[in-house]
Amino acid sequence: MNLLRGQEPGIHVTVVAGEGVTHNITQIEKKGRYDPVVQVEDETGKPIPGASVVFALPAQGPGGTFENSTQTLIVTTDAHGRATARGIRLNKLTGPFSIHVTASAKGLTANAAISQTTISAVIRANGPFGVSTKSWVIASLTLLGIAGGIVAYKELRSGGNPNTITATPGTPVVGGPQ
Question: What pTM does this model have?
């Protein structure tokens, strides 16, 4: 459980997904891949459906906004007591940030924080022209195979070499043609 000090008894918030995520702001992320998810439970561990959950991004520094163009998003937990903060639009600032979570149900509140980080890193292939080394090796082997096939075809088509050396049984003779 990811509980903070001062949390009131009777309601708990557990971070299910999103803790420790690193976003690369130079790459397009798949929608929903890193959406923060929390679960709200009572003191016995039973999920609380219909609880109100507020996700809050930082007002300054790394972070961003939600699809509603604000830094707060209010979500109601589903039948399993889970709430998901969908549609975070990251800003261009890099570094660590926290998504603060406040859940309310049965007249009680609980808090949690989800730590994430944004980085700016260009990931490049490790070969010339941005092509991976593996691709270069495969292309080279393919070209060698094609060249070998062309040489073999030309040899077979020309009917062989007229200066063929043959070995016949008998006493070996070394010298010029007779």
Answer: 0.61
